[in-house]
Specification:
- This protein is mainly α.
- It has five helices and no strands.
- Helix 1 runs antiparallel to helix 2 and helix 4 packs antiparallel against helix 5.
- It is flat.
- The two termini are 31 Å apart.
- Keywords: Membrane, Transmembrane, Transmembrane helix.
- InterPro entries: DUF2178_TM (IPR019235).
Length: 136
């Protein structure tokens, strides 16, 4: 049994992201708001994600293995630890980016935006922490 990170929910989400990317490309044809690079990127990204996620969603053996892996307690714990560690790395990466962008005066809005995301993320973390401590 393999540990499939791409569960049915993830694959359905990727399909939606692919569709949105293609819609952005089609809107760009009408309103011309993307550069030629971004226009090509949104189209190729959308098609690639849409096709790959659709192939995996309709592959019965992959979905069967994915469902078994999704319910395995050991793999769930490992996935949780991986996500937790990844989140901490991302968390400190945002802190470093805030400091770096804060030092570069021409990117003031970027640093303010990153700081805003950082604060929102911290508030959500606090709320979830209180909720799970009360629940468990």
């Amino acid at each position: 049994m393999k540990d499939h990170f791409f569960t049915k929910t993830y694959l359905e989400t990727f399909r939606i992201i692919g569709m949105v990317s293609i819609i952005v490309f089609l809107l760009n044809i009408q309103f011309d708001f993307l550069t030629s690079y971004l226009s090509g990127f949104t189209l190729s990204f959308g098609i690639t994600i849409l096709v790959l996620s659709s192939i995996l969603l309709f592959n019965k053996s992959f979905m069967k293995e994915s469902k078994i892996a999704e319910q395995d307690e050991r793999l769930m714990m490992i996935r949780g630890k991986v996500m937790s560690t990844t989140f901490m790395i991302q968390y400190w990466g945002v802190v470093i980016l805030i400091i770096v962008f804060g030092m570069i005066e021409s990117t003031y809005m970027v640093s303010v935006t990153l700081a805003g995301f950082f604060v929102i993320e911290y508030i959500i973390m606090l709320i979830l922490n209180i909720y799970y401590k009360r629940k468990y």
